[in-house]
Amino acid sequence: MIPQKSTEMKSFVIDTNVFIHRPDALLSFRDNEIVVPLGVLEELDRLKTYSDEKGRNARHAIRFLDEASRHGNLKEGVKIENGSTLRVVQTKTRNIPTDLEMDKADNRIILAAYALLKEGKQVFFVSKDINARVKATALGIKAVDYEKQKVNIDNLYKGYREAEVTQNTVKELLETGEMSWKETLYPNEGMIMKVRESGETILSIFDKDRQKLIRITRAADPISGVEPLNVNQEIAFALLLDDTVQLVTLVGKAGTGKTLLAIATGLHKVIQESAFSKVLVSRPVIPMGKDIGYLPGSKSEKLSSWMQPLFDNLEYIMSVYKNQNIKSVESLLTNNLIEIEALTYIRGRSLPKQYIIIDEAQNLSPHAIKTIVSRAGTGTKIVLTGDPYQIDSPYLDSNSNGLTYLVEAFKGQSLFGHVFLEKSERSSLAELAAELL
User: Fold this and answer.
1) Which sequence spans correspond to the domains of the chain?
2) Considering only CA atoms, which of 11, 410, 18 is closest in space to residue 239?
């Protein structure tokens, strides 16, 4: 954690990855000294040409520093809007530990913090890179993670509660489909009630405006050929099918049905109900393991390798979905009922009346999540799915990724719904692997 404010001035040395995580991170450090090593500027300069989120954030950070430089000398220190003094320093090469290689940018950044420590300053090295923090700590520097947008994954909002009730308690709910509930619940929070006398399980969702529980009843027909297999999936379907809930997050381990439920509902809403113009599906382009490098072909051919998990779900849905006009995934794409897009191309677009699904959202930073959700136009619904325990991005973890951050930030909003899916329905092997490995 970033230490509490004291009377002594602190010097926060900011690593490059903090800017990449959040380009305006400097504003989080109030009334102290903020130090940006020259090596950080070199790395930002290298990253600014990238067309992805890293490049955008690098350019944003550079513009912030450029604006600050217009109000004074960055070498001597410039006051910024949060009351802190911003300085840019270069690494001093005298009296440095001999084990660190100076040709590595990370080491030069750490040594800039080390030099300030030797000057007698109270130094905190702020980095998202665990190894960099370990090296800094080995040199006697206090190293901290940037935790402005962190949540405790162990206490993450589940989106539902469980309660044991009597038959008399739920009599009104069974007869009329709704009932008052005195306990404080979040908007669109699910309630799983087990009736003591009969053992029956009754599902409902809390309507905040009316202060009532609304019973969930299963649809007469499967949704795009898909039926819920457990109570969590039934709550998820209820939120996905409710057009007044404009933002839905589905969090869970592998095989819990997050993506399948989202795509099945999206197709149902577009084809059967015509509630949206099309389904737009995307996911972060982050490889698991070593990157396979440049891919030849058109944009759709390049995307097919990254989007194959989405196509797998579509193929399954089409195998059980009965519709005379829609017989294949290709026909969905040809008729513009579903669009597969890279996240890079979503930025800058306004997306009205679309059912947007962002898969593997745990690999996005809070800043990237904000960029995506802010693309929503009139009549658009956004569904984000992901597993916070399976993160491929090197500077995110289960506590700092954009998906869990969004869940905690939105949990009291009436247009938001969330479900934590716990039971894997893919196979007994998948369930065992998710638990043991």
Assistant:
1) 10-144, 230-436
2) 410
